[in-house]
């Protein structure tokens, strides 16, 4: 099997792949640090007093494309 591509598209594909790999690493880091904690209602309610953790949760939601309001 051979893949056909236009050579002028290679730089954009390489750049997109690099970006996707970086985002995957960010997701993996957030997932391992967030989900290592026991998540329950009290944990979520306490986010208001933990701005750094709340920001991490928000970043994870943005990366996953989850709407938040």
Overview of this structure, please?
- With about 70 residues, this protein is an all-alpha fold.
- It has one domain (about 10-65).
- Helices cover about 65% and strands about 0% of the residues.
- It is built from 3 helices and no strands.
Quickly list its features.
single chain; about 70 residues; mainly alpha; 3 helices; about 65% helix; about 0% strand
Oligomer: single chain
Spans of at least 5 consecutive residues whose pLDDT stays below 50 are none
Q: What is the arithmetic mean of pLDDT?
A: 85
Protein structure class: mainly alpha
Level of helix content? 55-70%
Helix segment tally: 3
Task: Indicate the radius of gyration in whole angstroms.
Answer: 18 Å
Extended strand count: 0
Largest sheet: none
Outline type: elongated
Count of separate structural domains: 1
> What share of residues are in beta strands?
under 5%
- The end-to-end span amounts to 47 Å
Provide the succession of SSEs. HHH
């Amino acid at each position: 099997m051979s893949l056909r591509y236009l050579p002028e598209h290679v730089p954009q594909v390489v750049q997109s792949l690099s970006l996707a790999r970086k985002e995957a690493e960010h997701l993996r880091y957030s997932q391992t640090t967030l989900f290592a904690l026991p998540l329950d209602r009290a944990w979520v309610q306490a986010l208001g007093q933990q701005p750094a953790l709340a920001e991490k949760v928000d970043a994870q939601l943005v990366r996953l494309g989850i709407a938040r309001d």
